[in-house]
Amino acid sequence: MNANTRTHTAEEVTLATLPSGVDLTTTIHTYDGAEDGPTLYTQAAQHGREINGTETLRRFHERLPLEELSGTIVAVPVANPLTFDLVSYITPEEFDSVNPNMNRIWPGDEDGSLHQQMAARLWTEVSRADAIVDLHTGSPDMYPHVVYREGDERSRALAEAFGADLLLSEQADDEAPEEWHRRGFAGKLRVAAAEEGIPSVTPELAHNKQILEDAVEEGVEGLLDVCRYLGLLPGDVPARDQTIARNHLGQVTADGSGLFRPEPGLEVGQDITEGTPLGTVYEPRTYEPLHEAVADRSGILYALTREATVTAGDQLASVALVREE
Ligand SMILES: [Zn+2]
């Protein structure tokens, strides 16, 4: 950067080319401060139905005091235009039959499948950054939280700066359970970036498809506090009471297919004990109860599905094991 200039640019970039020859593009916002400083990369909507991240970045754009910025912020509000247009989590087979979930293939491959190409283009921005905030939202009713790699203290500090009440550590590599490997979690942007030594977090800003004011506000304040923590903006990050828990890969899942009625009075964010009733899956025609779901551990209930039509194996609830309060 030239001295004493502060700029915002919005650049349209090509992520990949579709079979028809149409370019798949997105917009990358770059904010350069007058003073030197670190680079923050943030993106939203890899999973296109997770639109609270996109709304968070729009409001962050409005509120960012560019005149106070030292360093660079790179923001991508729609990282995956394909899933955004489909209001979906993954892409249909026609677009990427090999890697339907974009958040399993980082750092991508410019000669690979469509999602791999898209990730490879964005990775050129990611790899230049000093910190990563990859904005997501959960699919069921979810308590907002921030995920970081367990044992990675720089990522933990970034998560603490973002400031949600609940921080969830996730075990990786050799420490991770079999499910982490089976589900390809090593290919998450957060995990791949942390592997390169870039502190990296995933805020999960409540559930999807709806703009939720509280979750968006938490996202904007979180990004501004991350900027203060990194020295991109002046000011201190306030001290907070945060609970550290380990996320729950082996969630409580439905034993049968039917309608799931959550236990009345249960709210995400509350402490529950092992054996707490979570709800009932029942046969909608005969009313026969198929599964009386209970918590398989004591901890914080951070997700409880409200999408009542479930098939066997669907996630009903997630309970995080408390590590530090
Ligand atoms: Zn997501």
Automatic annotation (TrEMBL):
The keyword Hydrolase applies. Its cofactor is Zn(2+). It comes from the Archaea. Keywords: Hydrolase, Metal-binding, Zinc. The keyword ATP-binding does not apply. Gene3D superfamilies: Zn peptidases. It holds the Pfam family AstE_AspA_cat. Residues 36-229 form the Succinylglutamate desuccinylase/Aspartoacylase catalytic domain. Signal peptide: none annotated. One of its GO terms (molecular function) is hydrolase activity, acting on ester bonds. This is Succinylglutamate desuccinylase/aspartoacylase. It comes from Haloterrigena salina JCM 13891.
